Amino acid sequence: MKNLSRRFARTMAAVGLMALAGAFTFNASAQSASTAQQAKPTIVLVHGAFAESSSWDGVIRKLEAKHYPVIAAANPLRGVKSDAADVASIVDAVEGPVVLVGHSYGGSVISSAATGKSNVKALVFVAAFAPEAGESAADLAGKFPGSTLGPALAPPVALADGGKDLYILKNRFHDQFAADVPAAAARLMAATQRPIAESALGEPAGAPAWKTVPSWFVYGDADKNIPPAAQAFMAARAKSVKTVVVKGASHVVMTSRPDVVAKLIVEAASR
């Protein structure tokens, strides 16, 4: 019995040592993975008018598969200055480098939010506005022919503060905003669209960060909200590091072609 007890004790001790070694290996691997993830910049995604954070879902899945930390900000869509202040607060709360990505009106927001932020290493404009100081989204949308957004808008919704909110008519949403997205998905997007304050589209932008922060651009050649010619003009003016034009893509290129958009974001984050 004594020999049996000794053998049992030795066996349990060996099992304990193996478990300890396994735990050490697991913790070391987890720490290594965590360190590798922390070394990557945080991607902050900012949606635009008539969209919301879930419009980035496909892009988020692809970025997270490559172990990038991602934040999809809720853009209030109330005004460039105030919206940029909200996004700037998110940037300030992130430890380490940040890549700011903006869609549509969100481009105006990220360009303002990044001004003076030393941890913002890149800007990615996704079918987005990149205004010069004093320019508004409305100015840029009308700079070149091609936008059909005006007739697709519903009658403005009056707000208690005297302002007005803008929505896209549900029966026009698919064709106007998301023509290359399946109809069922476009119906959901129309129902969950976030309105933008009419005044936000006419608000002049402040000093643009794209003059000092490297910028990347991606947009579709079938965009009916922001004319492709306007987006080409803004990309050239910003001296875009790389510009990707997606054949047949609508205004929501990040939803319909998340692989293309995620790839460009990774390029910007890796530079």
UniProtKB/TrEMBL annotation:
Gene3D superfamilies: alpha/beta hydrolase (3.40.50.1820). InterPro entries: AB_hydrolase_1, AB_hydrolase_fold, Sec-Metab_Biosynth_Hydrolase. Keywords: Hydrolase, Signal. Residues 43-263 form the AB hydrolase-1 domain. GO terms for molecular function: hydrolase activity. Residues 1-30 form the signal peptide. It comes from the Bacteria. Transmembrane segments: none annotated. This is Alpha/beta hydrolase fold protein. The lineage of its organism: Bacteria, Pseudomonadati, Pseudomonadota, Betaproteobacteria, Burkholderiales.
